[in-house]
Write a structure and sequence with these properties.
Elements (H helix, E strand, L loop, with lengths): L2 E2 L6 E2 L11 E3 L2 E3 L6 E6 L4 E7 L3 H18 L4 H17 L1 H12 L3 H21 L6 E4 L5 E8 L3 E4 L7 H13 L3 E4 L5 H13 L7 E3 L4 H10 L5 E5 L2 H13 L3 E5 L4 E5 L5 H12 L10 E7 L3 H13 L19 H16 L3 E7 L7 E7 L16 E7 L2 H8 L7 E5 L3 H10 L4 E4 L18 E2 L6 H4 L2 E8 L1
Parallel strand pairs: 9-10, 9-12, 10-11, 12-13, 14-15, 14-19, 15-18, 17-18, 19-20
Antiparallel strand pairs: 1-2, 3-4, 5-6, 7-8, 8-22, 13-21, 16-17
The structure holds nicotinamide-adenine-dinucleotide.
């Protein structure tokens, strides 16, 4: 259906009623009434409510915990083959329902429909991979050759409490749920209340794929109250969180009270090191798709562009030209290449970062707020940014690229490693020696060399330092939810 968006005056393909009714999933039942009422979900492109999500009270959280405890003792004994088959079926259902899920995702998060469709497809691939890993939970054995046989078994750790953010509202729940279920664990998950429909669609796909009651419980609520309650419960054996470093530290403190194993995937502030033995203008054009993906609201988003002196200006010119050519509009509109920021907090965070960088001498080449009714912020390039600028130290988590020059390898590695973050980095060089040396010197969990990719559904995703610990996805993504047991037999 086509309509005219009155705020911007351009044609909009916005459907009139595509956002679904939402409920919590507790012990196999869809619960529409939250003990703590409802919260509305806002579309960041039009600043209008599109739906509501129920908020759980303590009684409902306790029901979810009891269901996770009971179902764990059944699910852990379901054969890996059957667990795997159920997850594969759910992945297939996501693919079948991609159009509908992606539309709701764009309405709640703002990202262009093409990115939402990619996110559904990638989430299904992640689930398929982890489903395969369910069947590879091998242990080991050893013996002294005469009297003793030692067996090392792998077992599910127990019921999991998981908390996921709004920026990848399907990928992150998919990694946590599929990893836990593949290992034989049950889970209580609290997806972000601002982007609930994507996660609920995953819950529905799992139910339709034959998920036994109580194995996945999905609740919404006040984040602090829910996380405190769930993590304190003796039922929970493992905590998994993706979000900001600030909240991650709080979650880790809560989990440490019960000595509960924890996985944290937190913020990043990715450096991009561009040497003058590479085609800087070509790197600039490649960088656009990565920097402005999800309007820059990605923990691995390339942000600090360190460009060797001689090619810095070429890079800035090519990058700014390509960035200003991006079509920024409602993510549901045909041709949208970047949508609005996902919420008011991100929008409000941008201007102070830009102002501070300019006060410290940076050149604002392009970018700034857009006057079109939603949380639209144009692709922004700040050149020659001082290391002391706030944006060089705080994760912008928005469509802001910062450039700065460097001379020597040691100098740029030290500057790249300067922050407490350690998630992702990117290196561009024509020298095999530099390509071998620099990635090894960077204090991060993932490095892209001569491109902006960081693995796929078959590899882990995670960082070091204050970007967190543990890893999600890949074979390690199942190991996160397993414990080992040693059995020493005479
Ligand atoms: P925030 O720190 O308020 O919240 C981050 C996430 O944690 C949200 O999903 C929120 O619902 C959840 N949360 C907040 N308090 C919680 C609690 N006490 N218990 C459990 N969950 C809780 O920040 P925000 O404004 O939503 O996002 C901005 C910052 O968060 C960004 O600067 C970025 O660093 C970070 N972030 C990182 C990721 C990631 O992929 N690692 C994702 C989203 C946000």
């Amino acid at each position: 259906m086509m309509s005219i968006d009155l705020r911007s005056g351009h044609e909009s393909s916005r459907p009139t009623a595509a956002y679904p009714d939402l409920a919590m999933l507790i012990d196999g039942r869809w619960v529409e009434t939250g003990g703590r009422g409802i919260r509305s979900v806002e579309d960041p492109a039009i600043l209008a409510p599109v739906g509501t999500v129920p908020l759980a009270d303590e009684r409902q959280l306790d029901e979810a915990l009891a269901a996770a405890a009971r179902s764990f003792n059944q699910w852990r004994h379901v054969s890996p083959r059957d667990r795997s088959a159920m997850l594969h079926r759910a992945a297939g259902l996501l693919r079948q329902r991609a159009e509908r899920i992606a539309t709701a995702m764009t309405m709640e998060n703002g990202k262009p429909l093409v990115e939402s469709l990619d996110e559904v497809a990638f989430s299904a691939d992640i689930i398929d991979f982890l489903a395969g890993e369910a069947q590879r939970a091998y242990g080991a054995s050893t013996s002294d050759g005469a009297t003793r046989r030692i067996t090392l078994t792998v077992e599910p750790i127990g019921p999991v409490a998981a908390f996921t953010p709004w920026n990848y509202p399907l990928i992150v729940p998919a990694r946590k749920i599929a990893g836990a279920l593949a290992a034989g664990c049950s889970i209580v998950i609290k997806p972000d209340e601002e982007t609930p429909a994507s996660a609920v669609a995953l819950g529905q796909a799992l139910v339709d794929a034959g998920l036994p009651d109580g194995v996945v419980n999905m609740v919404f609520g006040d984040p602090a109250a829910v996380s405190e309650h769930l993590i304190a419960s003796p039922v929970i054996r493992k905590v998994s969180f993706t979000g900001s470093t600030r909240i991650g530290k709080r979650i880790a403190a809560l989990a440490s009270n019960g000595a509960k194993r924890t996985m944290l995937e937190l913020g990043g502030h990715a450096p991009v090191i561009i040497f003058d033995d590479t085609d800087a203008a070509s790197v600039a054009r490649q960088a656009i798709g990565s920097k402005f993906h999800n309007a820059g609201q990605s923990c691995g988003s390339p942000t600090r562009f360190f460009v060797q002196e001689q090619v810095h200006d070429d890079f800035v010119a090519a990058f700014s030209e390509a960035a200003s050519a991006l079509t920024v509009r409602d993510g549901l509109d045909d041709g949208a290449q970047m949508g609005p920021l996902a919420n008011r907090r991100r929008f409000d965070a941008m201007q102070p970062l830009v102002d501070d960088a300019r006060d410290r001498g940076a050149d604002l080449v392009i970018g700034g707020p857009m006057d079109r009714g939603g949380h639209f912020w144009a692709p922004t390039v700040l050149a020659g940014v001082d290391e002391a600028a706030r944006a060089m130290n705080e994760e912008p988590f928005g469509p802001i690229a910062l450039t700065s020059t460097f001379r020597e390898v040691d100098e740029v590695v030290a500057r790249a490693n300067r922050l407490p973050y350690g998630l992702a980095a990117y290196v561009f060089t024509g020298s095999a020696a530099t390509a071998a040396l620099v990635p090894r010197a960077l204090e991060v969990g993932m490095v892209g060399v001569n491109h902006f990719s960081l693995g796929g559904e078959d590899t882990f995703f995670g960082g070091v330092k204050e970007s967190g610990y543990g890893s999600e996805g890949g074979p390690e993504g199942v190991g996160e939810y397993q414990v080992r047991k040693l059995i020493d037999e005479a």
